[in-house]
């Protein structure tokens, strides 16, 4: 590797080193590999010459924020490195950022100075937890105003979603200062309807390719139409939780054309690839199916929590068949009805969607569908849906949350195991009635089922299904597993902890170095609420976390049995968990 580093030019070497996760952080490897250490000095020099990212995560306990933030910002100020990204993740428990405890004035002043000195700033992210609306405040206005005080030729991404913590004047200044702005996320922002922000949006719309307006309650449908009309080249659009009519949706899905050759609405948005219309939007099921017909290049469609239903999919099939037969010059009954580009569909919480609708949609997108999200507490899905999912050869990402075992039986899981070998993510969270025998069909020791490609496994709340036997037999097969969520799986004991720790033992790491398998991404494990883990199991996992082999959540809470505790105990314990298991606040991430 050292000889390779000396022969490559700087740009090529930077790409190579960035692709090795173990060279993250400050450029030092997580393990003790001499080959990686040989290039660290050059790696640090390259990073200083290219880009620096500052990502700060505010803890849920506001009392922890001031000292940690001050230490992080002080360290960065001493380095004198210019910033390429400033990302501040806000706590979902802080309903307002106006208090000094949430973001001290001296910390914000230092962050403003850092942003002001970084002429090459490319990304500004000041967002909070998704879906949580907050009262508007001006807590971050000085920081945003400092970014917008001068022209930012490199600034291409601004995300102030769900925080609503900067004034309309400051937000408008940032938009005006970014002539190359390509991605803008304003979810939950009440200032978007301000005349200054609207004017800046119209001025920057020609270059925007990504726009998020979810839950912008200050906007009426005419305002949404005006903003979208100013953005003719969008590839990613989020208009979730916005009350709009079908007429407004049709206007949003078209680009106005002045010459009138494309009809009164203009031409369809052929560039749009990702569309989200989640939650309550006043749109009927037939209106929600309209984008699938109108947008030929739509790759990802998110209608979670909407009124999407079977009848709209039936009409969709007829419309697609008619369009296909018209284009091909065939009879309508001979024309195949397919969604050839659709690869990512989110149908969670769509309680009006039954097996018939899901099966029909999967058949129309069978050749391209790689990501499917289904389930919810009121989902009526049963065996026919699971059997159809088993026939999706391109499937890589599957979420089937809150499954009802009475509807989905073990033979269906046996069918699904045939397609599970290609999965990279499997999420069966909160399926409390799922049995260990059914889960073993997907997580078997050998034969059909998930295997070496699986990187993320989420089994949170599957208390009956996740046992020591199931987990211990499957883990040796999961060579690429980087994230495992078994929170509230109360049947796990010290045996599971030993099985999880085994691949990280000194002997195992020594065996894996020559093939570079040990350079996999640093893992994440959540054992919150696993009340049967003994002290030995906790020590075993804590050793991995201290050695930076694995990041473990919930080690301080395994004595608490959440399933039998009161609601007050649950909320208190969860707050303690997030305070004790914070991501490294003030992390200076290079590269």
Task: Give a verbal description of the structure.
This protein has 591 residues and is an alpha/beta fold. Among the domains are: 1-49, no CATH class; 415-559, Ribonuclease Inhibitor (Leucine-rich repeat, LRR (right-handed beta-alpha superhelix), Alpha-Beta Horseshoe), CATH 3.80.10. It is built from 22 helices and 20 strands. The strands form 2 sheets. It has an 18-stranded mixed β-sheet.
Question: What would a concise description of this structure say?
Answer:
One of its GO terms (biological process) is SCF-dependent proteasomal ubiquitin-dependent protein catabolic process. With 591 residues, the chain is of the alpha/beta class.
Task: Give the key terms.
591 residues; alpha/beta; Leucine-rich repeat, LRR (right-handed beta-alpha superhelix); two-stranded antiparallel ribbon; 22 helices; 12% strand; disordered C terminus; Leu-rich_rpt_Cys-con_subtyp; LRR_dom_sf; F-box domain-containing protein
**What's the mean pLDDT score?**
77
CATH architecture of the domain at 415-559: Alpha-Beta Horseshoe
The tally of helices reads 22
Helical amount: 25-40%
> What is the structural class?
alpha/beta
Tell me about the largest β-sheet: 18 strands, mixed
Termini separation: 19 Å
The portion of residues forming beta strands comes to 5-15%
Overall geometry comes to: globular
- Any idea of the CATH class of the domain at 415-559? Alpha Beta
Parts with pLDDT < 50 across at least 5 consecutive residues: 21-35, 91-101, 330-336, 506-522, 558-591
Radius of gyration: 26 Å
CATH H-level superfamily of the domain at 415-559:
Ribonuclease Inhibitor
Number of strands: 20
User: In the CATH scheme, what's the topology name of the domain at 415-559?
Assistant: Leucine-rich repeat, LRR (right-handed beta-alpha superhelix)
